[in-house]
Structures are given as structure tokens and as C-alpha cells.
Amino acid sequence: MNIRVGYIPYLNMVPFHHGFGPEPMEAAGRRYEFQSISPRALGLAAEKGVIDVGALSLVDWVRSSSQYEPIGRYGIGVRKEAQSVLLFSNRGMPRLQGLCAVTDETSTSFRLLQLLLEVRYGRSNIRYERIASSTLYDGGADALLLIGDEAMQAQKQGIKGLSTVTDLGEEWLKWQGTPFVFARWAIRRALRQDVKDFVEQSIQKSLKINDLHNLELASKEAAQRQLSLRDVLDYWNGFAYELNSEHEWSIRLFTELLEKACLTA
């Protein structure tokens, strides 16, 4: 039996994959295959039942929780700022209007953006449009939401006409007073317990490797992604890869707000 693992090739996911993908691997007579995939596409794959394991975007994990269970407390939680979930706009969020382009890679960040604009700031007249990549952005929108490595590069280079940069993780923290959670590792409930144990142990081992060889691994990623060593270290240090009680509270709060705003579909 092959186990299908969603592999998100973002810098913030690297600590989970030292010896656990992205190359196929064999363990206890099973082959683990890793599919490179965006957060939104991973959620769609989980909904269709064509993926077994992955760091599901929070809204996708909530939607699929009857079929998938959390793996320990592992996930993508922030400490303060998200650093790579950024809104580039021609004015601040409280005064934003018009059209907002949204990367097609996001699920949770898009819903978070809607909550911030529509519930926190009362900007209910915003129109949203999906784009496949920032390279396809034609300059015709009043704002652009990017995530992951693409957001980090855009912040360094700037986006013409969109000089205001807002970190959505920081906005959530200011609004609700708790750090945000963007994803949670989950595995199909129907899988055997030995598979679940192996995946959890692999994630745990990978995070320990990342801690023990932090400088060496960060240096390698910096060279590959055209970032400085300090950029990578600061970025990784901004995440909590094991969620705490504050993160659990944030998940409940976010879910309740989505339901009240009718943004769960």
C-alpha cells in the first residue's frame, strides 16, 4: 500500500522534511510518496480522498476533520507576525476598496483576509479575484494577497502601485490578541495505527534535526532561495511547529468567526 503525502515546497515547511520526503521512501513494507502541492490544492486533494497525509490549511482541516485526524500538535502556528502572508495594497486595510487579487495557492489566508476586511474593518464592498501567480498580476487591482516564498520575494522587490504591506498574522494578533494558526498536520483516520505512528515519529525526528543543525540547514536554504542566513533563521524562529494552548484557542475563535460571517463554504 502506498501512502500519499502532500508536500508543500515553502520555506516554512522545510523543518518538517529532513528525511521525510520529498523523495519517496520505504518503511515497514510501505512506500511513502510525496506530491509537491500548494496549500489550496492539498485541501482539494484531501476533499477528493486522493491524499493520505499533509499539513492541511486550517480551513481545509476543519472541513475534512471527519475523515482526517490531527497528528499530535504539529502545525504551522505563528508567534506574532506571519512574515509570508502579506497583503500588498494602495492604502491601508481600514480604507481599502475596489478589487483585491488573491493568489490561487491559499485557502486559510484568503478567509483570514475576508474576516479582517469585512468583520474587523467593515469593508464589505471589496471584490476578489483569483490569480495563478504574482507574475500574472497585471497591476489592475487595488490589493494583492500573496503567501509563502512568493510573498517574501515580493516584499523584497516591492510591487508597483501597492506600497502598503500588511502582515495578516500581525493583524489577527492585534485584533484578537492571540497568535494565528495557518495549517495543521493531519492523516486519514482509516489508516492503520502503525502508519500514523511512523508519520508522527518522522515529523518529530525532522524537527529535532532542524534544531540540532539549524545553522547548516538554514545556510543551505538561504543559498537556494536567494535569501540571507539571517532571513531564514528569523523566519523559522517566527513559527511554532508544535501548537500550544493559545493556538488551540485561536483555532476555535477563527472557526467561530467564519461561521458567524458565513465564510465556511
In words, what does this structure look like?
By secondary structure, the protein is α/β, with parallel strands linked by helices. Helix content is 40%, strand content 26%. It has 9 helices and 12 strands. The chain has helices at residues 39-48, 58-63, 108-120, 148-157, 168-176, 193-212, 214-225, 229-237, 245-260; strands at 2-7, 25-27, 30-36, 53-57, 68-78, 85-89, 99-103, 127-131, 143-147, 164-167, 181-188, 239-242. It has a 5-stranded mixed beta sheet with strand order 8-7-9-6-10, sandwiched between helices. A 4-stranded antiparallel beta sheet has the order 4-11-5-12. It has a 3-stranded mixed beta sheet with strand order 1-3-2, with no helix packed on it. Helix 7 (214-225) crosses helix 8. The two termini are 33 Å apart.
The end-to-end span amounts to 33 Å
> What is the number of beta strands?
12
Encode the helix/strand succession as letters: EEEHEHEEEHEEHEHEHHHEH
Radius of gyration of CA atoms, rounded to a whole number: 18 Å
Strand content: 25-35%
What class do helices, strands and sheet pairing give? alpha/beta
Mean pLDDT: 94
Please summarize the sheet with the most strands.
Answer: 5 strands, mixed
Itemize the secondary structure elements and their pairings.
Layout: E1 2-7, E2 25-27, E3 30-36, H1 39-48, E4 53-57, H2 58-63, E5 68-78, E6 85-89, E7 99-103, H3 108-120, E8 127-131, E9 143-147, H4 148-157, E10 164-167, H5 168-176, E11 181-188, H6 193-212, H7 214-225, H8 229-237, E12 239-242, H9 245-260
Parallel strand pairs: 1-3, 7-8, 7-9
Antiparallel strand pairs: 2-3, 4-11, 5-11, 5-12, 6-9, 6-10
Helix pairs in contact: 3-5, 7-8
